[in-house]
Amino acid sequence: MIELQNVHKVYAGKEKSVAALTGINLKVEQGDIFGVIGFSGAGKSTLIRTINFLERPSSGHVIVDNKELGSLTSKQLREARKRIGMIFQNFNLLDSKTVFKNVAIPLILNGTDKNQIAQRVHELLTFVGLEDKADSYPSELSGGQKQRVGIARALATNPSVLLCDEATSALDPQTTASILQLLERINRQYNITILIITHEMHVIKNICNRVAVMENGEIIEQGNVLDVFGNPQAMTTKNFVSTVIHDEVPPIIWTVSATHRGIAAFSNSNLLGIALKSHYYSILPKNLMCKSIYYLLPPQRCKARRSTTSLLNCAEQSHRLNKPIIL
Ligand SMILES: Nc1ncnc2c1ncn2[C@@H]1O[C@H](COP(=O)(O)OP(=O)(O)OP(=O)(O)O)[C@@H](O)[C@H]1O
Ligand SMILES: [Mg+2]
Questions:
Q1: Among the atoms of ligand 1, which is closest to the Cα of residue 13?
Q2: Cβ of 190 below 6 Å from ligand 1
Q3: Mean pLDDT confidence for 156-165
Q4: CA 300, 306, 307 angle in degrees (round to 5)?
Q5: How far apart are CA 248 and CA 193, in angstroms?
Q6: 3-state helix, strand, coil in the chain (%, to 5)
Q7: pLDDT tens digits for 293-319?
Q8: Residue 227: which residues within 8 A CB-CB, separation 6 or more?
Q9: pTM score, two decimals?
């Protein structure tokens, strides 16, 4: 669906040049909700902008829907871009145009017939829950509503891919959750592949099935969300994982596991897992556990003292009693 092969991007400056991407290899499959996470300056926006050729790579190949974008003429590239929608952190709406006009822009540029435009815009605004806002101006909308307009506009030309660059970073947690739900619905209902760039771990946790972690223009880890966050290798990945689970893990778990005295099994409404000597790799939010706890607990990690089965029994017991069990 989307493939990046050894993509490099160097921004040439007057005094020095910046290598924003260095040898990116990435494969996003049809139907994925693929997250790319990394700290500021990691190269995430540059990466997403190479996927619609807003940014031309300095070298390497970008393939979307079986087309190698670098080999297309400008006319072919314009056509290919219609199949790639994009939404932005700051929404990028035209303040002087109504919601209707903002959503209609790609269709007007396409030369679509007026009646068809009216019908499609109505359909899109209904889909994003803004059917009563067609005549409002962006300044009259909340942040979440503005992003819904951005989403409706991105869907206007029936894209097969939706690129989201920090689409929820300017929104409060509740609004973020509702926008993420909308993206999930777009993915399910229209089978649109979604690539999400974010520096917020909960975005990945909530809707992505696959993830890549970026640092200094490189992808340092990628794979299934469960695999990557169930057993993070790189320090940066571990840091991101800890941002979503640390607060939720009962303090006693950290105390016990930090003293190296043993292993603690615990469960609460969101989490189920085993903590082993301060390592948090085996603690995961429950909504990430689509398989089983065995997944979280590869036997080689528990060679000390307890068998996997006894740890599992403890985790289950902890779940029943609703309190951690110290081993
Ligand atoms: N147009 C540009 N010209 C020169 N350097 C640039 C340009 N755009 C980005 N860079 C540099 O490339 C690097 C990667 O930037 P990029 O915007 O891709 O990071 P990011 O991961 O999206 O960061 P953030 O989370 O802050 O949005 C940074 O060092 C940045 O300064
Ligand atoms: Mg960015």
A1: 4
A2: no
A3: 95
A4: 60
A5: 31
A6: 45, 25, 30
A7: 322 333 334 334 455 556 556 666 666
A8: none
A9: 0.79
